[in-house]
Design a protein that fits this description.
Layout: E1 5-7, H1 12-22, E2 26-29, H2 35-40, E3 48-51, E4 61-64, E5 68-72, H3 77-82, H4 84-89, H5 91-98, H6 103-106, H7 111-116, H8 125-130, E6 134-139, E7 142-147, H9 148-151, E8 152-154, E9 157-158, E10 165-171, E11 178-184, E12 195-202, E13 205-211, E14 218-219, H10 221-227, H11 234-244, H12 258-276
Parallel strand pairs: 1-3, 2-3
Antiparallel strand pairs: 4-5, 5-10, 6-7, 6-10, 8-9, 11-12, 12-13, 13-14
Helix pairs in contact: 10-11, 11-12
């Protein structure tokens, strides 16, 4: 591991200034479950590591029906899975957070870090995609909000500028929304997703989001349009399951074949819609 200078800013403004000053020579450090591995395996070799965990306000979860759920950048997966409001109003997000790694990992890993890492198979990504979550970004130039569906642009790539920090992710509240999160992995515990998916029913609308089936997590607009306002008959569920597999572009890799992933997408959609019905 290459030597680096460890920096611990106390404010977002200070962290943003350090980001702007050092640019690509610096890496942000939050939970560290991805960064530490990348450092140890020499996948990254920064001159500076900027630890944001001591910045006030970034470790809070807040909820109201008017403002929705706001998850600070330093909130761990374990805290999300245990939060009473998350379990009551976004149980599928709690399930996704609970599926990450081991207890030890969940007590370090953060939801925002999971998204910023921009892996196609990020477990908390599909519930957030399905709920039209928004990433809250801040720099010395000001604040901006980016829909999560626009935030991740490719594998390990986001729209985050070199001087910006993600301060939170905001999830809208939808009265009566119900959802199903499904993770398929090679092992029952402590494994990355072979495929993960979330299907949400919000009023008469259905939202489907999947991970590990394209370079980024994806929504399924054609399948959503087919289901919108319709009664979930067996025939419609079958039609939706078949259509969903045409909206993804999985690859063959070490975890699974393209053909397997296509079959699993179909099964997840079918089972999720049956459960929601």
């Amino acid at each position: 591991m290459k030597e680096f200078e460890y920096l611990q800013p106390k404010t977002i403004a200070e962290a943003s200034e350090l980001r702007a000053r050092y640019g690509k020579a610096a890496v942000l450090f939050n939970g560290g479950t991805d960064v530490v591995i990348q450092l140890r395996e020499n996948l990254i070799a920064p001159d500076y590591v900027i630890d944001i965990k001591k910045i006030p306000g970034l470790n809070a979860i807040t909820f109201s029906k008017s403002d929705g759920l706001t998850i600070g950048a330093c909130v761990t997966a374990g805290a999300i899975a245990a939060d009473e409001n998350v379990k009551a109003y976004y149980p599928f997000l709690a399930d996704a957070a609970e599926s990450i790694g081991s207890v030890q990992v969940r007590n370090r890993a953060t939801c925002v870090g999971n998204i910023v890492n921009a892996s196609p198979l990020c477990d908390t990504g599909t519930p957030l995609y399905a709920m039209d979550a928004v990433m809250c970004l801040e720099s010395a130039r000001g604040k901006r909000e980016v829909p999560i569906t626009e935030f991740i642009t490719f594998v390990r790539k986001t729209v985050l500028a070199e001087d910006e920090i993600v301060t939170a992710v905001r999830v809208p509240y939808i009265e009566g929304a119900k959802g199903v999160f499904t993770k398929v992995a090679r092992r029952k515990e402590v494994d990355l997703s072979t495929i993960c998916g979330t299907v949400v029913k919000a009023g008469g609308e259905y939202r489907l989001a999947f991970g590990a089936v394209a370079p980024t997590p994806v929504r399924m607009p054609q399948t959503e349009a087919l289901l919108s306002g319709a009664e979930l008959t067996d025939a419609l569920i079958e039609q939706a399951a078949k259509l969903a597999r045409t909206e993804v572009k999985p690859i063959d890799d070490i975890r699974a074949s393209k053909a397997y992933r296509l079959d699993v997408v179909e099964v997840i959609v079918r089972n999720s819609l049956r459960e929601l019905r």
